[in-house]
Amino acid sequence: MRNSNTNNWRSTALIAGAILTAGVVTTTSTTDVHADNSQNNAQVSNGQVTYDQVRATADQQLVQLQSANDSKEAQQATANEQSNAADLAQTNAQIDQLKASHAALEQEQAGAIAQAQASTAAFIEAQTSAANAEYQQQINAQQQNEATQRAANDQQYAQAVSQAAENQQAVADINAQYQQALSDAANTQTSQAQAAANNYNSAVAKENDTYQGKLSAQKATNAENIKNAEASLASVTANANKPYEVATTNDVAVTGRVAKPQTDVKVPAYVTKYGIHLEVRGYNGAIPVSDYTYPEFANTYYGEYPDSAVITNKAAESTPHDISEMPLDFQPGLLSYDAKNDHSEKVSADGLTADQVQVLRALALSWENGFRNNVFKNYREFYNVVNKNDGFVNVAPVDLVSTDFTDNIANQVVANRTKYNVDNNSHTVKDSGMPTEATYSSIINNATQNLKKNLTSEFNGKTVYTDVNENLTTMQAGTPTLLNYAINLYNSMQGMYYGELVNPTHIGGHAVNLLRAGIRTVGIGFQKLTDEMTAKNGSGVSDRKNPSYAVTFDHVGFNIDHDANLTKEVQNRNVWGTSTVDAQLNTIKTAQYHVNKVPGTKTVTPTATDVQKATASEQQKLADVKAQAQQSLDALASAHQASLNKLEQQYNDAKAQVKANYDVAVTKAASVRDAALKATGVVDLQAYKAQLDSAYQNLVKADQVAAQKLAADRDAKIANIKKTENTKLDAKINELVPSIDSQIKQLQDQHQAVIAHGDAVLAELKAENKAAYNKLAEQFNVQLAAIQQREDAKRANEVRLANNTVVLPSAVEAANDGNVDTVAFPTTSNPLQAETTGRVQTVSAPSIVKTATQTPIAVAPVVTTVNHAAENTVKSNESSAPVVTQTAAVAATTNNGTQTSVASTADNKATKADNSEKSVVKADTVAKKQTPAKKSESSQKVDQSSMSIVALAATALLGTLGITYSSKKRHN
């Protein structure tokens, strides 16, 4: 008997909203230079600001300015590079787009372009043929004219010969002799030509015979060499193709016996009549088999009976003989038990050992996962009904795990059930007679409270659902072996899970609990039942001589806001503990299937590649032999052809000589004839003949020049036709597919313009920065020179009298009658310089500077300077001397201690310094009055004993001149 208890807590995550207040802390630093508040304050001395201080300030500000300039130039250079890169990418993209469009248009107009090209080619061909025909007509006319002229010359010459011969017989004899000479010359030519031809033919025949003999011998040698090389290659190839034996290790798969669940079970009539009684909502009595969507699920109910004793047709293949033969998947069907073929380990009367419990936990975990996966893959309608509101419709479940975390839960559940005497028909709940803190849900809450807290915090704003439930069944055995317990548990779980899948609208609570996709772990507990529990009516325990167990399945998991992705991500985290059943499952898996390494040999048949590698050398030798054979034949043919060429040249030379001999004989005959005719008194036929020939040659030369012009005109005409028609063709093609070269060049020129503009901006910035730097340096140089000159003059007017220093008035000061003039320094373009390089300067009557123990006669004014800079912030403690600028108001001191402000002249107004960033920095000064502190009686007395007689005399003397005492005190 088993029970299901679904306790799904839906806890809404608390959303803690915190308002973060950002405190803005503003730190301000004043550049005011404060004077000491003691009564010994005196007027600011000209010696407070030294040349070295100003020099140090100048160096510092110049370095800062250079650093700022370098930074701006680097930023501009980086901006240029980025701008250039972006513009280049855009330009290339536009060019690529133009090219792509142009290529597409070319493809589109290909037919029209081809038609235009064909038309142009046909027109050019026709015009060329017409021009050639016209040219040939003109050449034919020239040749016809030349032939006519040649015939006329011959006729005129014959007439001259006839007319010139006064003695016809003499002329006839002369001509007869001439003709005989010509005949003799021709016969001689024929004889000599024949002799040369005979000699040539004989030499050629001999050379051919010699070549054929050499060729036959060389071919025989080549054939033998090739035959030997081929035989060697065939032998090596045959050996390379022979199979050979090699040592090897073979993987031999060993498949163990695994029992197959039986679905076509037969049971006695009384069992059938009793019917199927399972905890499925909607059924108070037996469940009709006809209500099952899948009838094989109904048969799993008979697993409720111990050892499947009610099955009358037990199948041998469904009977395991050891734990290793138990199926690890969980297909529908029942297993049978055969005590005679049980080879598993025994279970003692005290019950299962810890190791045996882990084996059963491993099997039960595998079966629960098998059920979930099988239902999802093959009976998904049941899975989707259970998870329709949880975000897991058609989303595969994650496998459950059994870990040290869940073992602790299961062990605590078993301990509490035992403590409070909860039997196998009651869940681990309060209704079973246990306190709330002992229930399975309390145990799980305590174990997962930190994890839930972390998830609630992590998924703030989303709902974190706790998925917790418990299934309960009874495990017993008629034979005290581990296999008997395992088969009993397997069959009981078949009925508890598959038996409750009646149809999608009627699913039992156990099946629903297990099919929930939100659960991730299962704690499987084995509570040993007491005799009192097994003796209860309805306990379902049929054999009490062996220990029986209540088996609890406590499932734990979280569903994150009904989001399958978030939930599975949490399920796959390493927060559920370490598996405690892997070793047991692996042992069973290895027994059911493993691979053995078996040594042996195998015959290797060489591959084509192997044969190719083994015969590569011999193949190369054969190729070399064939190449050498061809080279030898080529050498013979070359030598033979050279001999034939030589014979032909000799023959041509002989023929030329024969022709030359004939020409000499003909010339001689003509000369003899002409001499004889001349002797008879006839006209100079030779001169006449030359005259006629010259006229003819002139005509031929003129025709040649004319022919060249005609050919040139024809060629020019054809070239012009081609140029004109090709221009028209180019225009037509450009009309069909306009050129994009100008557009590409324009884009490239624009990109170069962008680069040039960036370079110009950077160059301008560098020039401005350099000018600003040089200007600031020059200002410092002017100021330093003034300080140096003033300090030199000051030292020239100081006189040391004992412990006192007397500053004598200069000629200029004496002329001013004691009036106060201000000394102004050149303005600066840098606010930091204005804070560190100036000093308050008051020029008045000469004064005696006393030691610190003396009381001053008058209080000097205190002058502080405030500089407002656009970019620089100077801390007050960084200035070692007071600052004065051209706009400073200088205060003078009267004898009664009051202060009188002396305004600076118009010439001392502030100037503007235009730096590289075109910002105006103002240098303002604030003149503050200081009320002299009240003098105590002791401080107003002069310690006459501390002064020497010389000092008193000097004091009296200088007092008449209006010289006052002042202790020297720096501002800090």
Structural class: alpha+beta
Mean pLDDT: 81
Q: Give Rg in angstroms.
A: 63 Å
With helices defined by DSSP (H or I, 4 residues minimum), what is the helix count?
21
Global shape: elongated
The strand count comes to 17
What is the element layout, followed by pairings?
Layout: E1 3-6, E2 9-11, H1 51-108, H2 110-164, H3 168-240, E3 244-255, H4 269-274, H5 295-299, H6 354-378, H7 380-386, H8 404-419, H9 440-458, E4 464-475, H10 482-497, E5 501-503, E6 506-507, H11 509-515, E7 519-528, H12 531-535, E8 549-560, H13 564-571, H14 582-592, E9 593-604, H15 608-679, H16 685-736, H17 741-796, E10 798-801, E11 804-807, H18 811-815, H19 831-836, E12 848-850, E13 862-868, E14 890-893, E15 899-902, E16 922-928, H20 937-940, H21 949-959, E17 965-967
Parallel strand pairs: 12-17
Antiparallel strand pairs: 1-4, 2-4, 3-9, 4-8, 5-6, 7-8, 10-11, 11-12, 13-16, 14-15
Helix pairs in contact: 1-17, 2-16, 3-15, 6-7, 6-10, 8-9
Describe this protein's structure.
This protein starts with a strand and ends in a 5-residue tail after the last strand. Strand 5 (501-503) and strand 6 form a beta hairpin. It is built from 21 helices and 17 strands. The strands form six sheets. Strands 1, 2, 4, 7 and 8 form a five-stranded antiparallel β-sheet that branches. A four-stranded mixed β-sheet has the order 10-11-12-17. The protein has a two-stranded antiparallel ribbon with strand order 3-9. Among the domains are: 108-154 and 170-242 and 606-770, no CATH class; 346-593, no CATH class. It has helices at 51-108, 110-164, 168-240, 269-274, 295-299, 354-378, 380-386, 404-419, 440-458, 482-497, 509-515, 531-535, 564-571, 582-592, 608-679, 685-736, 741-796, 811-815, 831-836, 937-940, 949-959; strands spanning 3-6, 9-11, 244-255, 464-475, 501-503, 506-507, 519-528, 549-560, 593-604, 798-801, 804-807, 848-850, 862-868, 890-893, 899-902, 922-928, 965-967. With 972 residues, the protein is an alpha+beta fold. The longest helix is centred in the first third of the chain and has 73 residues, at 168-240.
